[in-house]
Amino acid sequence: MTTTRISAALRVPPAAPAEAAAFFRSRLAFQADVSDVHASLESGEPGFVLVDSRGDAAWAQAHVRGAVHLPTAEIPERAASLLDPAVPIVTYCWGPGCDGATRAALALARLGYRVKEMIGGIEYWIREGLPVEGANGVERRAADPLTAPAGSAHCAC
User: Fold this and answer.
1) φ, ψ dihedrals at 91, nearest 5°
2) Is residue 98 within 8 Å of 105, Cβ to Cβ?
3) FRET pair for 140, CA 20 to 30 Å: which of 3, 63, 89, 94?
4) CB atoms within 10 A of CB 146
């Protein structure tokens, strides 16, 4: 008797192509990665407002230049005075281990804003060697070779 082994990765088979396409398109409608956000900001016309949803101490430590500081807890009271409902928003928080950007995006969506989340947060922004502003001015660390190719801010994907 021959036993057919099922790959651990395929215990649940892949979705049909049309279902997969819908799922992956949906993910891209809700998320943007660090390098795409950076490239958009560098263009001078990103088409969105970047919102840092972390608290005051985190903002002071380091934030993306040009971001709007709007801690998640303050969104209901302050969003209308800081954000234009006609302009899409991209939120970020600490990193992949934190769902603060997701909570901020949810709060903004509930208020009627079109919003995406920057996956990776400030952690991957810094790890990819992109500049941050903080108490010591603008700083830029060398890119972590596990997160970005040496000498480049994006993987050319």
Assistant:
1) -100, 150
2) no
3) 89
4) 6
> What is the rounded distance in angstroms from the CA atom of residue 95 to the CA atom of residue 14?
28
For residues 117 and 30, the answer to whether their CB atoms sit within 8 Å is: yes
Nearest to 83 by CA among 61, 102, 62, 105: 105
Name, in order, each residue with C-beta under 8 angstroms of 2's C-beta and a sequence gap of 6 or more: none
d(C-alpha 138, C-alpha 115), whole Å: 27
Closest to 90 in 3D by CA, of 56, 153, 39, 14: 39
pLDDT in tens, the chain (157 residues): 666 788 999 999 999 999 999 999 999 999 999 999 999 999 999 999 999 999 999 999 999 999 999 999 999 999 999 999 999 999 999 999 999 999 999 999 999 999 999 999 999 999 999 999 998 889 988 888 888 776 665 666 7
Closest CA to 115 of 104, 128, 99, 127: 104
pTM: 0.89
Give one DSSP letter per residue of 44-107, joined into a string. S--SSEEEE-S-HHHHHH-B-TT-EE--GGGHHHHHHHH--TTS-EEEE-S-TT--HHHHHHHH
